[in-house]
Amino acid sequence: MENDRYLDLVRQKRSASAKSDREYKESSRDRLTKIIDTKMRTVMIGALATIEENMGFLWRHGEKCKLTPEEEDMKRTFDKMRKEILDKGNTQSRNLHTEIEQYNVEWLRYNLSLPIISDE
Prior knowledge:
The protein is rod-shaped and about 90 Å long. It has a domain at 25-100. Helix content is 72%, strand content 0%. Helix 1 runs antiparallel to helix 2. The chain starts with a helix and ends in a 20-residue tail after the last helix. It has 120 residues and is an all-alpha fold. It contains two helices and no strands.
């Protein structure tokens, strides 16, 4: 009888441990996905900011004035490039989500496991 209760406790511990492990891996995958999303957005927005900084003079970026036809054409070209960059980046971000779902992901942070020792 005492042995049955002990075995039941061991089974409960293993079950709880397995559930905790599944949840940890799921949260690790979610964490990695969020980090990747942030980094992908940073790359895309950073590239667009660099283009604006270095070529914005072509359409008087940041100025509040009427643009010449040539400047309007440059602005339209930049807007088209911006849309394409964001669309391609978002597509790759979705592809990464799909790819990550095919892996077991575990965040390797510091973890301390205390052993359970039987009195028997």
